[in-house]
Design goal:
The protein is mainly alpha-helical. It is 32% helix and 4% strand. The two termini are 14 Å apart.
């Protein structure tokens, strides 16, 4: 795993001070989708959420928000809970 790129995202390009979701969520690929899709019960069930994230124009902002605010649950910015935990440990 490279410290510069995770799941196709250039970590250096993440906004350092992302705006809150109410400022950008209407432009997200997941907007209007049942939120339960983004809170799978296991990593194996995260596929549909990750597919939406893969097509999203603002996933870097979403991921930056999740990382900055310590979002522990759900899929954010194309990363699962487990992936974000590993990322935080890896880049720390």
């Amino acid at each position: 795993m490279s410290k510069e790129r995770i799941a196709g995202i250039d970590l250096k390009s993440l906004p350092s001070n992302p705006s809150p979701p109410d400022m950008w969520q209407e432009r997200a690929a997941c907007y209007g989708i049942d939120p339960d899709v983004f809170f799978p019960t296991s990593e194996e069930e995260a596929g549909p959420a990750l597919a939406f994230c893969g097509a999203c124009r603002i996933r870097e902002t979403c991921l930056a928000w999740a990382l900055k605010n310590g979002e522990r649950y759900g899929v954010w910015g194309g990363l699962t809970e487990q992936q974000r935990r590993r990322l935080v440990r890896f880049v720390a």
